[in-house]
What we know:
heterodimer; A: alpha+beta; PmbA/TldD fold; 2 domains; eight-stranded mixed sheet; five-stranded mixed β-barrel; 10 helices; 39% strand; B: alpha+beta; seven-stranded mixed sheet; 20 strands; 38% strand; globular
Amino acid sequence: MALEEAIGAFQKSELGRRSEWVGIREVSETRRIHSARDGKPESNSTSMSRGAMVEVLVDGQFGYASTPRLDIESLSAAAERAATQAESASRWAVHRFTQAQRPPTQARYRSPILKSMDSMKAGEIGDLMIQITERLKRSPKILKASAFASLDRLITRYVSSNGSNGEQEQFLMTADFEAVAQDGPVVQRRTNGGMRGRSYQGGWEYLYADHLWERVDRVAEQALELLTAPECPDETGDLVLMPDQMMLQIHESIGHPLELDRILGDERNYAGWSFVKTSDFGQLQYGSKLMNVTFDPTVENEFASYAFDDTGTRAERHHLIREGKLVRALGGLESQARSGIPGVANMRASSWNRAPIDRMANINLEPGNSSWDEIIGSIDRGVIMESNRSWSIDDFRNKFQFGCEYGRRVENGKITGAVRNPNYRGITVPFWTQLAKVGNLATTETYGTPNCGKGEPNQVIKVGHRSPVCLFKNVEMFGGAK
Amino acid sequence: MMISPITRVAFEDLSNRILGQLEPGEELNLSLSSEASQFVRFNGPRVRQAGRVDDASLEITLFLKSEDGYRRATAARTLTGLSYDDRRLTADALQDLRGMIRELAMDPHAVPPQGGQSSTRETAAKLLPEESATDTLIQGIGESDISGIYSAGPVVRAMANSAGLRHWFSTEGWNFDYSIYTPEQRAVKATVAGLDWDASAFDRSIAHSKAQLAALSRPAVRLARGDYRVWLAPAATGELLGLLAYGTFGEQNIRQGDSAILKIREGRAGFSDKFSLREDFSYGDVPRFNDQGELSPEKLPLVEDGAMKNTLINQRTAREYGLVPNGANRYEGLTSPVISGGDLDDADILARLGDGIFVSNLHYLNWSDIPGGRITGMTRYACFHVQAGKIVAPIENMRFDEGLFSIFGDSLEAVGRRLELQPEVMTYFMRHLGGARCPGLLLSRFKFTI
């Protein structure tokens, strides 16, 4: 009851009486991390981050103040600080907001979980990490073998002066391992999906999912295979992206450009903005008609599922791009009020010490109709790329260059062998326009990443991406350093 | 007035209480980060978000000694600054660690707490009052289309361990990291920072940036792909250094195939004799101690006249490979880097560049091939096409893909004489400290790809 009582106490103060709205988001994040390298423990840690973000609306401006102190007096004092910030900024407000940007919620959410945080002991997971690295080190040419696993239990409680009383309990699991192989001047790295991509809502059960030891063996084998593989050819042709690389492609060239705060210029000084304009919604043909992209925080086990965002907005599935046409933005209620563009429930904060901003959640490319055999069989000459290892895109989200860990050559409809250092580059809309085949449900996989950075002050947030295998035509591809 | 949630007295008291709870065979390291920060975010000459963050986190690393060596486990807890709460939180954390550590495998690379020279450094500053900061900033900005963030307040880094070592570093300061725009949305980027609020420095920075905008009013030209002569201004060099900061000079990364420096070690590449890089803590804007309390040398040369002199080695790496540590942090990253200045004066830059590209800023750098030593990224903000030593027009942003040993090696034609501080304005998880000091670089060849 401390949160509600703190709101009541603040509302009795002079600043409180002048305030139009106050809300408190209490966050408690418990995390366990276990990692090992080359048969030895590297890190075994626990952490508990706990505090509250208090937001107050005064004269149409939200101000915020975070505090690690959760007693009524401290929370009420934080509300006073937030109100002071709001009041001093209100004369210069970018927009006059109202309570409509903080709708009341009473929603409850809990991630599905089979093996809870305490169901496996630290020693058990620490030993598993060591065993994975020992199995990865199957050759003297494996220079480094490492393994990592983390599980977060994130509890968010949200109350407000206009009737919010929501609670979410998310379990967020990430596991990865890597093998670095060296033979003379050639060094090649292979991981279990790149970008810590195996990130899901759930528990320790994901440690063993998808035939763990087969994946471990494959990562080691492919790291060694790449040592003698030819360089990815420098040529323009057919590019097949596996779902773990589609994660990055969707993230950088769809997710970020559609963030409404970028389009409105909030991010100009840091992450950049977007080639997308407010006038493009409902008009711009973003890519081929095979392209259907959704914001979907309702997918079970996907990394960024939730019932309401950090402003209390109810989370629902929406199409962002339908048959290639841009229809909706990634913007929360504040950006929607400023722009008049339809958006989604995506105002999210990285923790209790940051205010919510427009973020991705689960951004998914919907499956198409092509089978794996149809996709590969249609290619005369091309490259399959998987697992991201390098990413860079300009501040308007146009010119990108991405690199992958593992490539395979396709000739005359057949896979003919591995290639190393596969890279490609392009420009966002022309690239998506060249989307020629979208894989069916059988080719679809779900990934996520805990490391999406954005915002001033900076925030790292967790996102999910689900995608089928995709074929793009006429893409510029190339290999590693000469 | 903003005060860090954890004061020195409170940290000393809390440290002594935790360390007093140790049992035989246990050793402990404590590492504290604490801050109180005001953040005001601008978009246009308007405020997008304004707020205040009070935060403190303590990392507790327990070492348990046995006949075979050490086990090691870590717990982090948010501190409240309320002594009763923090004593309970840390006592619980220690109990959690005790429950966990006996299950763990021996850690042969663990380095238990060491004694040594303790230190205290406290820097106070006079900042803008919280309630009037926004008004002051807006008045200085005027009607300009500006985007960025003002950050201010105290920051603390401290440590204590069971070997008796104590370090305390507290500082206050402010920075305004911003970009300013033409109606066509071309921009100039700048950061102004200090300890005491300095209205004249703030005004000078805004005026200088506004003056630079004039050169951006001409229509931008689109460059063809290819190799160009370029001048990388100090901020652009700072972006490159920012990429190198994450482990490139770390001994562990080099030995584990995750650094381009491997090429140098194997004799397959080298730096230009015009390139010198050092860690330099003499400026005093970051702690010299790392989270285990080890002190870095005040100056540590990494590259001197093109020759590798040192890599960054932390205690754990030193234990694993039988080396001598040199105060590197856990990630063996650059903490307070300085690239030595050369002989090219500001007044001569355009003439020496002749025909080429003046690059003010780079953006979104990443390794496109780490072992191969190749970097990709974008130009950003005020970049210009230069012909016959004169600025002709701004350019549309271009992507580059270029070798580290070309940029700091074969293609390095001259180094600017003047060093510029690139203040560290990152705020991931907490406000970061310090910055990089860099000159500009004149390169005879730089590959633009798209």
